[in-house]
Structure of G-protein coupled receptors family 1 profile domain-containing protein:
Amino acid sequence: MGFFAFLYSAIVLTSILGNILVILSVCQYRSLQSVRNLFIVSLSVSDIVISVVSGTITPIVAFTKIWPFGQLLCKWVPVIQGVSLCFSTLTLTSISVDRFLLIVTPLKPSIQKCCACRIVALNCAIALAISIPILFNQAMVDWPPFCGQFCTEDWSNSSIQRSLYGTFVLFTQFVFPFLIITSCYVMISIKINSGMRTKRCSSAEVAKFSDYCSSNVRCDKFLSSSFGTDEGNSLYINEQKLQNGMLMAGDGAMKVAMDQRKMVLSRRIRTNRMLIGRCLGTRMRKGILRLSKTSLMAMVAVFFCCWAPSVIFNFLRDYQWLPNFVIAQEYLFGTTTHCLSIRQVYNLS
């Protein structure tokens, strides 16, 4: 028990401190105050609330098996937890949509800061509207012989309403966000994959470019000559003479002409470097593509693994479809799935 308390406290403190640092960093540096970071700041605030409320009350109730916080907190703590968790889910969905708009449709207008603030306010209102029914269905009950007076949901007057509410929460808090997040990241992965496809260069060209650019010969000279620019060769020779003081001081016109040609040639060199980079960087871009796909799939997988056990457990409990072995340890399974859902504040923020 002591080790569990230490580990749990370390996780909660790490979450609180980490999210506070995120908020302070974004507030301090204007360069970080983007639309995406606005969503991340709102997510960090929600994660702090979850860590403070659930991270302190849940372990106390789990170990003591009583509710020592009174009737008022019995009503409001589950509401605060529900609002924070639902808001986090909606914010993660908003972040995925923002990434989708930035990457898949870069030419269309992106989300502005004022619009992002409205989205954050809308997410908060939706989360509050989804969680407010809990306020009217929380009660202090006695659970002998294992527990004393305990705070739990009490839908004894209307089991049908509980089932309908559970179904509504299942779709709004998990199914719809999961489908949106998955669709956005799949489209992003397809876009990245199509954007990384470039014309393959032959192995001889790649070897030629690598040898020239890694040797003692200036890469700029090779770039200018290898693409058929004869003036590049003469420019390189005259530049070397100018650096060695071999040109006469009176040749001002030649210097001006060299400067003009050098500007034109520099543009060609930049273009050629980009073309060569497409050949030399094929393996690197494939590695980046694999990493991007892995990270996107990891986001979807973590979201599913954190939320699926909790929402499925609550859904089966609302319809009284829980297996007998789960009913025998309903409190244990409920606490476990609750902890898994809270893990999203550490994995996805």
Observations:
- The first strand starts at residue 138 and ends at 142.
- The chain has two domains: 2-197+304-347, 203-280.
